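Review box. Two proteins, two foldings.
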Amino acid sequence: FIILELARLAALSGDYAGAAKHYASLDYPLAEAHYLVRLAQEAADKGQEPEGRKWLDRALKVYPASVEAWLERLVRLRRAGQAKALAENLGRALDLVQKRLRFVLLEGVLADAVHAGPAAGVSAEAGGQGEACLTAGPEMDRPFSAIPDRELAEAVLPVLERQEPDLLVSFYAAWFAAGLDREQAVTWLEKTLVVNSGFWPARLELLLMAAEGQELSPAFRAQLEFFSARAREIKRFVCRTCGLKREQVFFVCPRCMSWHSIGYRLVINE
């Protein structure tokens, strides 16, 4: 108990090396890897890339199923414009990470592309299908909140196609496919409904795709935009332990402090 409290205090004070050391002494590799990733992020923020890679490699050695370590590696590869290496590492990560947490990898890559901007060597003003950043829709009723660039989609989709049928993998595959081909995205969304006919995010995107190009009255379009905007404000992630709902991915629940308890809200009134 004393060592656990020391680990928590170290983490709260920003002493991630101390936290990792204490969790290692408790033989808790999941938490140890988490704080090794934090050390890797600190090093990267200081421009110490070799040091960051060292900590990240150590995290994956300590806990090969560490979703945060794999996500950090994928994000770095995306920012460096290394799409092929990203795809290779994504395949390995999907094999090692717990099945119920695999969506975190895909959500994290997409979220980083939105917030961190284009990959290295690519202009933020690049246009057309080859642009290398996520493009936000100009209207609220456009399918998916942001569309991944072609290079990222072409790298990721073949990896997802090799996975066994899975609701969330299929949904994120549809999201990536939206950067390539509308019909391919529709096919992936329909696959999610075969697994779970009530999966609301897929229903929303299919509705918005069906509305594209339709002659809609101004009143109907206004209502569609309103409800699609509200639907996208729903907190999509939930702690499986205490039920806390969040709009962003988390690795430790802020309320109950459970590790890797995140889930996707499959039911809108969950």
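Next protein.
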Amino acid sequence: MVTHITANDSPEAALLFIHTRLDGVSDSTGAAVHGLKHIVGQALYTRDGLEGLIVCTRNPDSAVDGACYHGVMEAFFVAQSIDRALDSSEFEHLCTPWITRNDCLNIFHGIGHGYASFVGLDLEKALELCTYLPTPARISACMTGVHMEWSES
């Protein structure tokens, strides 16, 4: 259903569907719901590129679980076939003044998740990416994303 809504209506409509119909249904659905938001994030990247991260900030649940951000970043890394340190300027414009600090940090947390997944959970390689980010808070957010992806996988 989420894939159908994403393709035939919009990723935003799919996020709303997930929020209104699926979030909070039960603890056992949490992982599945998180995965569905990854799918929507991937579709946002296909449609909007990295600007899809900004769309994620408008989702009521993004700051809670970050799954939409993670999906955008996964799609970014796959599309770019990145196997190198990133130029942080690719992401700086995403933290505009109207995005809360938590949402901004969640974007960088999602970068950590996406990169860890892309490099096949190579912890050292993924953490090295984080060190190229411009501020200690963003480095830390990225590193927690790497560690979470690595430990949960």
